[in-house]
Specification:
This protein is mainly beta and about 110 residues long. The chain is built from 3 helices and 7 strands; from the N terminus they run ααβββββαββ. It has a 7-stranded mixed sheet with strand order 3-2-1-6-7-4-5.
């Protein structure tokens, strides 16, 4: 077995770069009426829609569905503008991007 060298370890890209349908960026705008939010990434802005079954990580490792969060916190939203987040998404109808999971991203 050959031990890994620091150079080989440093050359590995971050796991977020390898995950399909995942982006990391800063929340720019949240529109609760349209049920969308936009995220500014290193390559530009992206808009995501959210649904009642979108999972939001509110405590490290603990995610809740948006509808359950809204029942417990009717006047707040689980993310905020200028918050750095990791969004996992899927393609929805009309090729929209539907957020399936939103969690805080480490700087």
């Amino acid at each position: 077995m050959v031990p890994s060298t620091p150079a080989a370890t440093a050359a590995k890209p971050l796991s977020s770069e390898l995950e399909a349908n995942t982006v990391v960026g800063m929340v720019e705008k949240i529109d609760r009426t349209k049920r969308t939010f936009s995220v500014k990434t290193a390559t530009g802005s992206r808009e995501f829609s959210f649904r009642d079954d979108t999972q939001f990580e509110i405590i490290a490792g603990v995610a809740v569905r948006l509808d359950e969060y809204a029942d417990a916190h009717p006047t707040s939203f689980p993310i905020a503008e200028k918050e750095r987040v990791r969004v996992t998404w899927r393609v929805g109808t009309a090729l929209s991007q539907v957020a399936t999971r939103v969690s805080p991203a480490k700087p």
